[in-house]
Every structure is written in structure tokens, then in C-alpha cells.
């Protein structure tokens, strides 16, 4: 079974466009070195679902330093200013929301975009989703990951087929 999702090139273009629009072009997104990972520190993750003609989830995972810096830039604050947990959660949620909206526009419609779910830590993916695109990038020297997961088509049970015949 082939799962449909945005191509690596399309996803990279979307993420790059959203990232530079919200956070400025002075620190471009760069490909991560192999096995960079997100590190062992505090991470933030966010997810938004697309439902309709195409069903999937877009996720963003970033270390705390990226979440803090992104929040400062999005709010126009000086580096090191005090940020509330709510401000950081809102900024991380807005990033996944904008990326998710652009992914939604690439996929067959009509579809709807959910409100973002944001966590300080890792959000577990539902078991009926499979990763179809993943970007491991760095921004200002720190790693980040953007993934798109698509819902697997569940074959009809034999009894369902017999009942409809």
C-alpha cells in the first residue's frame, strides 16, 4: 500500500518559507548532519491534524533553545527576556499550525486543519499513522525535526464485505 504525502522537496519548501517568514532569513534552515538527533535536553513538540480527503498529522519537534529563540523573534522581544510557558507554547503551536496549513494545501481536498496540540516533551503519534516525510534540520546551530504522518488505509474486514454484498 502506498501512502500519500508531500514530497521531501515540497515539505522542505513549505518549512523554509514558514520559518523565514516568521523568524527571519538571517538564520537559514540547514540540513542536519546524520545522527544529529534532538539531544537529551528539554524539547517541545507540536502536532496538527488534517482530516478530510487526505488524513494525516504534521509534527514539529524542537529543543528548548529553539523554542525560546523562536518565541522571542515571533514576539519581537530581545534575547534573554523572560518568557512564559504559555508564550512558548503559543509560538510552537503557531509554527506547526502554519506548516500544517501549507501541507494541507498540497494534499487532496477538501480537508480541515485541527487546532495544534503542544507539549513540553514528546507527543506520541497514533499507531494508525506512518511517517511519509521527515526533515531533520538545524537552525542557528540547533536541531529540529518536521514530520508528516499519514493514516494507513485499514482494509475492510471479510464480514464487512460479505454484509455489503
TrEMBL record:
It comes from Nocardioides psychrotolerans. InterPro entries: CheC-like_sf, CheX-like_dom. Signal peptide: none annotated. GO terms for biological process: chemotaxis. Residues 46-122 form the Chemotaxis phosphatase CheX-like domain. Keywords: Chemotaxis. It holds the Pfam family CheX. This is Chemotaxis protein CheX.
Amino acid at each position: 500500500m502506498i501512502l500519500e504525502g508531500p514530497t521531501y522537496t515540497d515539505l522542505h519548501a513549505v518549512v523554509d518559507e514558514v520559518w523565514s517568514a516568521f523568524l527571519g532569513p538571517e538564520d537559514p534552515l540547514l540540513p542536519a548532519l546524520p545522527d544529529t538527533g534532538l539531544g537529551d535536553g528539554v524539547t517541545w513538540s507540536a502536532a496538527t491534524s488534517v482530516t478530510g480527503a487526505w488524513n494525516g498529522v504534521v509534527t514539529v519537534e524542537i529543543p528548548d533553545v529553539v523554542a525560546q529563540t523562536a518565541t522571542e523573534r515571533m514576539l519581537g522581544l530581545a534575547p534573554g527576556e523572560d518568557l512564559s510557558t504559555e508564550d512558548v507554547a503559543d509560538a510552537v503551536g503557531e509554527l506547526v499550525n502554519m506548516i500544517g496549513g501549507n501541507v494541507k494545501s498540497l494534499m487532496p481536498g477538501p480537508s480541515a486543519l485541527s487546532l495544534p496540540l503542544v507539549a513540553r516533551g514528546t507527543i506520541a503519534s497514533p499507531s494508525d499513522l506512518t511517517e511519509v516525510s521527515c526533515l531533520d534540520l538545524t537552525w542557528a546551530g540547533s536541531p529540529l525535526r518536521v514530520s508528516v504522518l499519514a493514516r494507513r488505509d485499514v482494509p475492510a474486514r471479510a464480514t464487512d464485505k460479505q454484509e455489503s454484498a
